[in-house]
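[Discussion] Sanity-checking designs against the backbone

I'm trying to build intuition for which residues belong where. Below is a structure token string of 150 positions. I'd appreciate it if someone posts a full sequence so I can compare it with mine line by line.
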């Protein structure tokens, strides 16, 4: 099995598991519960796992059928730009919001662990997601250019 095929199989398995666990937890009434295993995919709650897991499973299936590694990078980088941009805006909003959402229940303990105030944790997350968004935008633009030149 070649390297791109292994990547597609692994992503199909991981996104399929995320979607399945999201389905199970959402139907168990834990939709806003924290999802600890898939944060690196932009999945933070179980309802995220249900929706994003299905999307990534279908997107990976399509690019695996096409057997196009550039298209894979293009789709995942586009998803990454959207997801990290949304998270950057969310953390910007959370800095000025007095509301504590159910999925933010563990954040005060995390902030205390790093000797930060809660608002400082949101600032750090906003900066992190902004840098990641810009980096992924560069990857997206370069892969789009490469894809269109073929």
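Best answer:
Here's mine. Compare freely.
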């Amino acid at each position: 099995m070649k390297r791109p095929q292994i990547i597609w199989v692994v992503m199909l398995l991981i996104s399929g598991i995320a979607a399945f666990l999201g389905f199970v937890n959402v139907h168990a009434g834990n939709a806003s519960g924290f999802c600890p295993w898939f944060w690196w995919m932009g999945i933070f709650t179980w309802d995220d796992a249900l929706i994003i897991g299905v999307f990534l499973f279908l997107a990976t299936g399509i690019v695996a059928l096409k057997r196009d590694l550039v298209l894979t990078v293009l789709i995942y980088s586009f998803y990454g730009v959207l997801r990290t941009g949304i998270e950057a805006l969310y953390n910007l909003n959370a800095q000025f919001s007095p509301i504590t959402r159910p999925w933010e229940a563990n954040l005060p303990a995390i902030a205390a662990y790093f000797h930060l105030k809660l608002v400082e944790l949101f600032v750090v997350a906003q900066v992190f997601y902004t840098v990641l968004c810009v980096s992924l935008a560069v990857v997206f633009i370069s892969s789009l250019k490469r894809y269109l030149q073929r």
